[in-house]
Amino acid sequence: MTALAWGALTDTGRIRDVNQDGVFSADGVYVVADGMGGHSGGEIASAIVVGEMAKIKTVSSTDELIEMVQRANREVLERAREDPSLYGMGTTMVALVAMTDTDAERLCVVNVGDSRLYVRTDNEMLQLTDDHSLVEGMVRDGWISPEEAMAHPQRNVVTRALGVEDELLVDAWELQPVTGDRYLLCSDGLTNELSDAEIREILDDTDDPEEAASSLVQAACAAGGRDNVTVVVVDVLDAEATESSPPSDRVIATRKDAHDIGDAAAVDAVAADEGASDESESLELDSLSWRSFIDWRSIEGWPLKWFAAAALIVLVFLLALLAVL
Ligand code: MN
User: Fold this and answer.
1) Ligand 1 centre from 34 Cα, in Å?
2) Which of 29, 267, 285, 306 has the fewest CB atoms within 10 Å, measured from its CB?
């Protein structure tokens, strides 16, 4: 078994009255959720999701974990249907779970929304999750720079959340645990206040994961604390050594749900992780673009969405014209 040590902390911050973030940490199960919605909806949504994930006893596949996320999504929707004052509540979720009942030791990650998972290896720190957010789409489409995104007034708008629709798009990864690696799960209350470099410095300077978690929260509050801040730091103390050297980003497999057309990051990830022949690579690319074409919701970039809407209006107009003639 992979031995892990961890520290977790959540804080209301310096501006907000309530903490709508949720957090759970136990040996092998780590969850951060960032709730949204008025009339205490945000707290309830994140609490439902954290509570569902806290029930995890064993996970033997990525699919199994995704199914748990889907169940949590249904729980939030059901609760909102029972109580109309909670209508519109939702929550992000990122979770890191140590797989059990498998031969190979693996860590499983699932993500919906703009909470993040980072890994710090012996020589770099990487953000493994994509943000499902409006500004992330704008950066990807080249409308704004990553620096502009950090200060954008709509940087809190997420394009995916639990509690919105029956069908939920979930991104998932399978990772190889490596002794000495440190994982960070956090809500956007941390990343909107601190740069990656500032986060990395704290992670490098603090050995104890509990102290590291509390230093990160303190730093985010000192930088403004404009949002609820939640942090989980997980250290891999002892992982099974493998014959071949682990991938530099620790990613063994990626399973991303439908992405928009021309999503280079998703295409790259699929291509890299399949690592197989050119044939399977192009098959993946085909199915990816095909799904993108038929799934309207997967068109996350606003420019594309407006273009599609305009094209539809023109088409209807032309049909009407044809009918008149
Ligand atoms: Mn937040």
Assistant:
1) 5
2) 306
pLDDT per residue rounded down to tens, the chain (325 residues)? 789 999 999 999 999 999 999 999 999 999 999 999 877 899 999 999 999 999 998 899 999 999 999 999 999 999 999 998 999 899 999 999 999 866 778 999 999 999 999 999 998 999 999 999 999 989 989 999 988 888 888 888 899 999 999 999 999 999 999 999 999 999 999 999 999 999 999 999 999 999 999 999 999 999 999 999 999 999 999 998 888 899 999 999 999 876 543 343 333 333 333 333 232 222 222 233 333 333 334 444 557 778 888 999 999 999 999 998 8
Q: Output the CA 238–ligand 1 centroid distance in Å.
A: 32
Which two three-digit tokens encode residue 128? 């493994």
Q: What does the alpha-carbon distance between residue 288 and residue 220 come to, in Å, rounded to a whole number?
A: 38
Q: Report CA(203)–ligand 1 centroid distance (Å).
A: 21
In angstroms, the CA 227 to CA 230 distance is 10
The answer to whether the beta carbons of residues 131 and 114 sit under 8 Å apart is yes
Calculate how far, in angstroms, residue 132's C-alpha sits from the geometric centre of ligand 1.
13
